[in-house]
Amino acid sequence: MDGLNGSVVSEFVLLGLSGSWENKVILTLIFSLLYLGIILGNLYIVFLVIADSHLHTPMYFLLANLSFNDIGASSTALPRMISDLLKEHRAISFQSCMIQTCFIHALGGTEMVLLITMAFDRYAAICKPLHYLTIMSPKTCVLLIVMSWVMGVIHAMAQFSFVINLPFCGPNEIDSFCCDFPRIIQLACSDAAKFEFVIAANSGFITIGTFFLLLLSYAFILVTVWKRSSGDLSKALGTLSAHITVVVLFYTPCIFIYLWCFPTSSVDKYMFIVDFAITPALNPVIYTLRNKDIKIAMQRLSKRDHHDRFC
């Protein structure tokens, strides 16, 4: 890889989270439990959607894919962060750093498009109920998932193509617990202003673009339900509460990190923790607590297990 970009830097040092040894042990335990919760919680959602025939609908097909994506996104950063907490020298090779960054942006871009497809599904179900099954056919659902992954990969590769050719010949410390394009560009041994602009424009476009589309779809849904229910918004808000909560949790750190014009403070690394540890752990909780169908499916699964155990 060094030969590809003329770099003399073979590894980067992740400064990670500082603190006393006792604090690091506590953080290691907390993040290990969070990661375990992310894996088990999201896998449970995927299993529930597959196992319960009542959940074989477009909405839950998309939800299962969101849970699968959350597992992948958290796995790109959390395991290394957990293992690095108790290390003195937190080095990552140039190749591994680039691979991690690409996966972070590919999965992040995929999740943004997935959230849009979930909003579109709710729009079709609420605003076009008579044509819902035609609009959200199995073929369309698969196409939307494939499109989400393609858009995520294109987003990551577009940024990677600019960063991979930069020369790295001096500083190699990254003030974070994982690699990311904005932090890497700041270490380049050339005037990377134009590359910073490209990265900011790319991330800003997909972040603001998808966020605007989400707001637009929610506005259409709220107005439609408001008109049909004679001015009562409670039904609409109840329908969208889980979606809106997930969107706020996911987009707030993204907007701060990628639209804050390459912040010099270390606050953005804590925003990463929200995106890669807190949000993926909360998503299963939000959907199980706020979704009636999921609750009923959990009860059916529990009764089925109880029946099988005693029969």
Q: Helical residue percent?
A: over 70%
How many angstroms separate the termini? Answer: 60 Å
Q: What is the count of β-strands?
A: 3
Gross morphology is globular
The helix/strand class is: mainly alpha
Counting DSSP H or I runs of 4 or more residues, the number of helices is 11
Strand content: under 5%
Sheet with the most strands, sense and barrel status:
3 strands, mixed
Q: Which labels suit this protein?
A:
311 residues; mainly alpha; 3 strands; 76% helix; globular; Olfactory receptor
Explain what the structure shows:
This protein is an all-alpha fold. Helix content is 76%, strand content 3%. The chain has helices spanning 2-5, 21-51, 58-84, 94-127, 132-135, 138-163, 181-185, 193-228, 234-259, 267-290, 292-310, and strands at 11-14, 91-93, 173-174. It has a three-stranded mixed beta sheet. The longest helix is centred in the last third of the chain and has 36 residues, at 193-228. The chain is globular and about 65 Å long. The relative contact order is 0.14. Mean pLDDT is 82; it is low at 1-7.
